[in-house]
Write a structure and sequence with these properties.
- The longest helix has 22 residues.
- The chain has one domain: Rossmann fold (3-Layer(aba) Sandwich).
- It has four helices and seven strands.
- Helix 1 packs parallel to helix 2 and helix 3 runs parallel beside helix 4.
- With 162 residues, it is of the alpha/beta class.
- The chain is globular.
- Bound molecules: S-adenosylmethionine.
- S-adenosylmethionine binds next to helix 2, strand 2 and helix 3.
């Protein structure tokens, strides 16, 4: 497959997963955490499909398109090893959806970040909350949920908090 087709497929799968996760929390009243602002693509999509949700965004730096930067009140700027525990304390039991897209090229670092996110998140989650992620994250108290049709296994991961 050409690299162009590969990128298109990856982004289509990501969009399908974001759309599906928004549907999966439609009955929950809760906030959204977007971990990994990057250039703001997925943040922009989440706010487009969930205009009434509060979305809080995490990144260690701002590199996003100027139109895709959250206001200061919705931005946790800094290393998630420091900012996520603070957010979890602030949002105890109020989070309906977490989208985590912090994968780097470094597999060891990815594993460390995934483990940290998984251990840190549960206190913030409400019953039925979804954790959608680009990396496999074991979140205590959650079970795996199927991906949308057509999204290859292990391209994305869905967990639902029980
Ligand atoms: N979701 C974004 C989008 O659609 O544009 C792409 C996110 S990009 C793949 C990953 C982001 O995670 C980068 O902007 C990087 O700065 C951030 N990141 C990686 N490790 C981090 C950490 N330990 N703390 C905070 N941000 C981190």
């Amino acid at each position: 497959m050409s690299r162009l087709n590969s990128v298109i497929r990856r982004l289509q799968a990501q969009r399908d997963c974001l759309n599906a996760s928004a549907d999966m929390i439609s009955d929950l009243e809760g906030i959204v955490l977007e971990i990994g602002l990057g250039n703001g693509r997925t943040f922009d999509h989440l706010r487009e499909i969930m205009p009434d949700r509060e979305i809080y965004v995490f990144d260690r730096q701002i590199n996003a398109h100027p139109k895709c930067i959250p206001d200061d009140a919705h931005l946790f700027l800094g290393d998630i090893f420091e900012t996520l525990p603070k957010a979890v304390e602030q949002f105890k039991g109020r989070v309906a959806l977490v989208h985590s897209d912090v994968g780097t090229g470094d597999e060891d670092l990815n594993a460390k970040i995934a483990s940290f996110i998984g251990q840190t998140l549960p206190t913030a989650l409400m019953k039925g909350a979804i954790v959608a992620s680009d990396q496999k994250i074991d979140v205590p108290g959650t079970i795996a949920e199927p991906l949308p049709e057509g999204v290859p296994q292990d391209r994305y991961f869905f967990r639902r908090y029980q």
